[in-house]
Amino acid sequence: xxxxxxxxxxxxxxxxxxxxxxxxxxxxxxxxxxxxxxxxxxxxxxxxxxxxxxxxxxxxxxxxxxxxxxxxxxxxxxxxxxxxxxxxxxxxxxxxxxxxxxxxxxxxxxxxxxxxxxxxxxxxxxxxxxxxxxxxxxxxxxxxxxxxxxxxxxxxxxxxxxxxxxxxxxxxxxxxxxxxxxxxxxxxxxxxxxxxxxxxxxxxxx
Amino acid sequence: xxxxxxxxxxxxxxxxxxxxxxxxxxxxxxxxxxxxxxxxxxxxxxxxxxxxxxxxxxxxxxxxxxxxxxxxxxxxxxxxxxxxxxxxxxxxxxxxxxxxxxxxxxxxxxxxxxxxxxxxxxxxxxxxxxxxxxxxxxxxxxxxxxxxxxxxxxxxxxxxxxxxxxxxxxxxxxxxxxxxxxxxxxxxxxxxxxxxxxxxxxxxxx
Lengths: 206, 206
What we know:
The structure is a homodimer.
Chain A: E1 3-11, H1 16-24, E2 35-38, E3 43-46, H2 49-64, E4 70-78, H3 101-113, E5 121-131, H4 136-148, E6 153-157, E7 160-166, H5 167-180, E8 187-196
């Protein structure tokens, strides 16, 4: 299972370069376990979902702690046809899929519950795309049920789901949505946006 | 056919609020033809693909002309199950689909060719997701063929395709990819990132 993300970090500050360079240091503990490549648009992270989401969370929280309005945007993908399989992405191919949808929802809720707080409030939205499977809508409805019970659900918006809460729980919730639902070997993608310190309104959960 | 986008604009500047407020004025000519709703994460645009992409282009180019590093990120969707059909999104349901894939590629190339320059260079990347159809990969390969001949193709990256060139041609190319390929009534989404004025390297096409 090939899994990875194209990740961009946007600090709304004249010192965006400095904030990005500092935040990228938060990826250092992951460099031996993730493939990391950067260009002027995004940084590619390739590796298993737990490390991907931990790395994105640490990158984002480090930038957000400057107090500047920061946004992390990422295209996250697993099982994409045409991508080379890579040992670095090892994920148990049957993980969770011998379990019923109800059991996977329970496991996802338990994983979010067990996640440590970061102290960084965030607002987030994401779209989950499950490609080319007969169980497409059933898996999406199961995932929506999980999201509504995750503790960070805010509301449905057109084309996406909005979350709010501590960055720890928000990233954990999106991670669980990404890999517990849809075929274990299927092509599943996420379009995620995580925001902190927006001046527009308080980032409290509604 | 319900089509729309959740759009975010990120000016990497301490004056991001002023740049955004100025750029949003570029949406005024579209307000009678698009549904537009804003919160602290994104702006929802609902309407037919030609207006959606024209509005996003004008929003982005207005911000980029400040010379600041600006990024537009959007989740674009058509035919999403669960979204209400809305008269504002009227698109000819059979537009192009009585034509062969080869003819649609030609039409897409002609549409990009006919697009006026904006004078704003950009670098862009996007992912196209065609959900739940038997012709999934055939349509994607047809779309990739179009992209490679579009004049703004840069290269394939993991999980996405990179473009570079004038904002006019770049937005037109992504618009054509969005609505000429995949089932006319199918669920197709885009995850797009358009960047200008990055200090990292020149945004010339490679």
